[in-house]
Prior knowledge:
By secondary structure, the protein is mainly alpha-helical. 82% of the residues lie in helices and 0% in strands. It is built from 18 helices and no strands. The protein is globular.
Amino acid sequence: MVAGFLTAVAPLRANRYNTCMKSMTEGRPAVLILKFSMPLLAGNLLQQMYNLVDSVVVGQFVGKEALAAVGSTNILNFLLISLFSGLALGFTILISQFFGAKEKDKIKRAVDTAYVVACIGAAAVTVLGLLLTEPLLSLMNTPAGPTHEMSGTYLRILFIGTIGTFGYNLNAGILQGLGDSMSSLRFLAVATVINIVLDLVFVVVFGWGVAGVAWATVIAQAVSFLLGGLFIVRKLKLSTLDPRDLEVDPRIFSEAVRIGLPGGVQNMLFSLGTMAIQRLVNSYGPVYMAGFSISGRIDSVAFLPIASFASAATTFTGQNIGANKLDRVRRGHRSVQLMSALVCVVISLVVLLNARFLMSLFSPEEEVILAGTEVLYRLMPCYVLLSFLFLTNSVLRGAGESIVPFIASMTSFLFLRMPAAYLLDHFFGRSEIGWCYGIGWVFGIAIAVPYYLSGRWKKRLKTENLQKNLQ
């Protein structure tokens, strides 16, 4: 059906697409990374609008129970899609390396393989998600009553729309690997407008509550997926999405798994750890759940520049490895670390000085505002540590090194942050839980940064052998 729809649409001019593709193997690394990051940042901001608008609409028009339901269940959805997210990153890195090596045939095979994996994965996640919704909510100690019921409704609808989530993220990863950070921004802008309009119509006009914001998100992501697929098929001509023409390459899939699977497992463990912290938060009831949820939304927005720099650094590293320009990888790492650290300092100050105002945008209740503000006051001073850790891990992943970033991230979160949250709560009270983030980041840095500086990651940078293995 999708293939027929895309084929029926008039072809778009290919020359406009070529202006979007960027080789990052020539020129000043800082300038290239900064230019590439800006559309990614705008796209990440738009993507966050999905969750932010959902939270604002339900917080202002439905109530704190609905706000707690929306905020506390997103991690459950992320748990089941996280494994594919890691695999998608593996394909993105391979495509960036093939692009740097000017291997278009391998790019086509990687795209076809990725689409097949996405379709199979989306079907599996939808079925699993619908079956596991109730057990997952019970595992998280979701309070009985309206919050539990609304959480279940919201989560089930999100699982139904998994194919849109997978599809959009995959399309964005393909384009990112090719140095195109503008096209996904355009598609996402359209989807965001649709999401906002449908949120207001479904909730304010139709009175559908959390079901309304869930359906708005699902529909918007499906539109973004279709637009991105149309662009890749008609302009890039890297796939037809016709099952008869798809060329699945087992070796490319195997290499994508090697690079991306540790990240996917990391995301799953991250989700489980976050669920454990959320269980602790849920034990304090809907008011504290709502406040913690809002602080998480603000944290998500503050994190966007780091995420954008990290995506740019991954693409920059992958392309330069494909072109065998390893000296540029170190130059890019230094540049992106400096830029991101400066941005983090500014963002942290802005959030700290305006924490109560930002919280009040989501909820007018004083207890909710106080709970979220307590978290932000302890989280934001440590934010620059997250930048150092996240960007170093991203460069290592772009180089094809997956194990050390996995160990650093897991040590940071699962082995330090989660236990620290419970210990802080036990000895100092719930108001000090926010310090658990910085504690974890310090230990993650102690693993990732020394490994990067040692240069041992270069052992994996044998591009000619990689290409030979994938032929």
